[in-house]
Amino acid sequence: MEDNAQGKTPEDLLRAFSQAHSLVPEHQENADNPSTADLRSKTTFSSDEFLKGLDAIFDTHEATEKAEPYLKQAMADTENAGDDAGLLTVLNETMGFYRSRGRHEDNQWIVQRALELGLKMGIEGSEAWTTTLINAATAMRAAKRYDQSEELYRQALESARKTLDPTDRRIAALHNNISMLYSENGNPEAARDELEQALSILQASSTDPETDIDVASTHTNLALVLLQCATESALVAKSSNNESTASIQDLQTSTDHANATSGKANCEHPSTDVDSLLDQAMHHSSKALEIYRNGHLEHSAHFASALAGYAQTCFAAGMFNQSVHAYRKALKVIKGCYGVDSDYYRITAANLAQVEESVQEAGANLTEAAPTKHKQNDTAIAATMSKTAPLPECSDGRPISPATDTKIGTSATAFTSPGTEPNPALHMSTSDPSAADSKPRISGLKLAREYWQTYGKPMIAEKYPKYQGRIAAGLVGHGSECYGFDDQYSQDHDFGLGFCLWLTDEDYVAIGEQLQADYEVLPQEFMGFGPREATARAQGGSRRTGVFRISNFFASITGYPAAPADDKPHEWLLLDEPTLAAATNGEIFADPLGAVSKTRQGFKMMPEDVRLSLISRRLGMIAQAGQYNLPRMLKRGDGAGAWLSIHEFVTNVCSLIFLINEPIRAGYMPYYKWQFAALRRLSKRMSTVLPDVCEQLETVLRLSSAACFGGAGFGEGGKGAAPAVEQIQGTVEHICAEIVTVLQQQGLTDSGEQFLEWQRPYVEAHIGSDDPVLHSL
C-alpha cells in the first residue's frame, strides 16, 4: 500500500507494534469539538510546567521517592484536562523512568498506551511520532522483546527520514540505539555499521567534536562492539582447536590462531584480526575519556558508561589494574546517580566481580597491569583518569543510560553507551547440555515466542522466503496462557509447544495447506517441553495453534471475521466481554502486513455508544443486585438468594471497571475463572480508575459465607451473620459512592444520587444514536 500525503497508512503503522496490543484508532477525537470538550474537566495542564517539575525532582536527587507519584498525577491531570498531547509527553517520560528502573513489565502498558494515543491523535508524520517510536522501541529493547523493538526502530527511522534533517542529531541517536539492538542480538557487524553512521552525523553536526558528549558516547559504543567482534574471532580460534569454551583472556592467548581463521567470524569487516580489533577498541574507548577530559565533563552521568566501556577494553587488553579501577569508579557514578537498586548498578557490579574473579584465577597481580602491547595506551589513559574531577554524590538521576529518551516537541537527545550493560565478553561459557533435562518455569506466551524464534521463523525464512514479509505469528485466543495467567497447574492440558501462523485469504489458498504440514513436523521437544497436549475441545476446527486464515481465526472466536461496524450496535451487544477478551488477548510476535493487528484492534475499539450503553446496564444491575435485592434477601433469611445477589453485584462491578477504564486501554473482562486475576492486574496499572475496588470485592466474597449462612463452620468465630452483613452492606455502598464520583469526574453525570439506577439516564444522555437497543426503557 502506498504512503498517503500525511505519511504511512494505519495498516503500515501497525507494523510498529506487532504484539498483543491494538493500535489502529477507530476514529480521531477532536479535542476542540464542543460536544467532547463539554465532557471534560476544566482542569488545565501545562507540559512545560510538568517537564520543569520533573527536572526539579531529578535535579534535587529525589526521583526514587517522588518521580513515580509525580508521573501518575500528571497522567491523571492530562486526562482530566482532555490534553492528549500533554498525556503523550507524560507517557514518553514515564517510558524512560520505568526503563531506567528495570520495570519492563510495567512499561509494556505505557508503551502500548503511548502508541495507541499517538495513532488516535493522528500525529503520524510528525516529530512527536518519531520521538514516541524511538522511546517505545528503546523500552522494548530493554525488555528484551527484540522483534518488536527492531520493527519499532525501523518505523522510527522511516519516520525520522521524513520529519528530520539528515544531520539532525536525533537520527544519530536512533542509529546509536539500533546498534545496541543488533549488538544484543549477536550481530556486531550491523551494530558497527549503525554506530559509524551515527558518529559521522555527530561529527558533521558538532561545533566541537573534541568536547562533545554524544561523540564520546558513540566512541564508547564502537569500542564495545569491536570487543564483540574480537570475542567472536577468539571463539573461532578456540573452536578450531576443538575447545568448547572461551574467556576474555583468550583474546590474547589465541590471537595468532585467530588471525589465521578470522574470516570465519561473523564480523566480516576488512580488519577482523583480534589485535586490530583490540587496537581499534582501545582507540575508541580512550577517545571517549579524552573528550570528557577536554570538555571538563567528568561530572556527567554519561561518564559512567564511558568508564565501564573503558574497563571492558582494558580487561580484554590484559590491563587488569586499570579495568578494576575504571569499573569501581563507574560504580561510584552509578550509585550516586541511579542508586544501587537499578539494573545499571547490578550489572556493572557483576561485571566487576567477574573481572576480579578472573584475575584471581589467572594469578595476576592487581597492583600492576599485565604487560601487553597496549601498555603505552594504559599509561596515557591512567593519567587521563587521574585528572578527572570529583564525581557528584547525588541520590538519583534522570534516566539517561542505556538508551535514548527524547521529549515531545524538543530536540533534546541523550546519547549513551551500553557500558553498564552485560559484558558480552564475560559470558562466554557454552550451555550445560544437561540443563534441558528439566522443565524451566516459563509462561505459555514466552514458550510460544521462543519456539517461534527458534524453529518457526527460520522455517519460514528457508521454505517461504517470498512470504516472509506477509506471514503473521503469535498466540491469541482461548486458554490461560493467552491471558498470561498460566502457571504450573495449567500445564496438564492444552499447553505445550505451538503458536499461530496467520495468512490472508489469498496467501492461504497459495500456501496454507503446505505451511500447516511444515508446521506439524517442527521439532516436538524444546526447552524441556514435549508436544502440545490438546483436549478434545481444542482439536480439529477448534484447534488453538497452527496455520489459519485471519478471517476464519477471528470468526472461530467471535462469530465475525472482523469487528462489527459502528452502525451495528446490536451486533456489538451480542458479543459478550469474555468473547471479546479472547479475541484481543495474547501476543503477536510478527505482523508484517499489520492485518492481524488491525483485525484485533477492530474488536478492541468498541463504539462509544455501545460502551456507554453497557455502562448503563451495569449500573442498573449493580443497583438491583447489590443495593436493592441483597439486603432484601438477607432480611428474608434466604442465604442462597443473597449469595447469588452478591455474585451478580461482583460480576457487574468487575465489568464496569473494565468498561469505564475503556477497552482500548484496559481490555475486556475475561470469563469467570480469570476475572479477578485480570482485575488485580488492571488495578496495579498507573492511572487505572477505581483501583481499590478489587480488594473491596474480594472482601465481600470472603465475608459472603458468614453473611448468607450465619458464619457457623466458615471460620468466622461463630459470631453469626450480623457483623459480616454490616460490613458487606457498608462495602457495597462505599463502592457505589466511588462509582458515582468517577462518573462525575468523567463528565457522565452531574447528579450525586447514590442509588445507581438513577444514574442511568444521565449516562445514556451521552449516547449519540437513537437506536432503541442502546437505551433502557
TrEMBL record:
<keyword id="KW-0802">TPR repeat</keyword>
<protein>
    <submittedName>
        <fullName>Tetratricopeptide repeat-containing protein</fullName>
    </submittedName>
</protein>
<keyword id="KW-0677">Repeat</keyword>
<dbReference type="InterPro" id="IPR025117">
    <property type="entry name" value="DUF4037"/>
</dbReference>
<dbReference type="Pfam" id="PF13424">
    <property type="entry name" value="TPR_12"/>
</dbReference>
<feature type="domain" description="DUF4037">
    <location>
        <begin position="572"/>
        <end position="674"/>
    </location>
</feature>
<feature type="compositionally biased region" description="Polar residues">
    <location>
        <begin position="403"/>
        <end position="420"/>
    </location>
</feature>
<dbReference type="Pfam" id="PF13228">
    <property type="entry name" value="DUF4037"/>
</dbReference>
<dbReference type="InterPro" id="IPR011990">
    <property type="entry name" value="TPR-like_helical_dom_sf"/>
</dbReference>
<feature type="region of interest" description="Disordered">
    <location>
        <begin position="391"/>
        <end position="440"/>
    </location>
</feature>
<feature type="compositionally biased region" description="Polar residues">
    <location>
        <begin position="247"/>
        <end position="264"/>
    </location>
</feature>
<feature type="region of interest" description="Disordered">
    <location>
        <begin position="247"/>
        <end position="272"/>
    </location>
</feature>
<dbReference type="InterPro" id="IPR019734">
    <property type="entry name" value="TPR_rpt"/>
</dbReference>
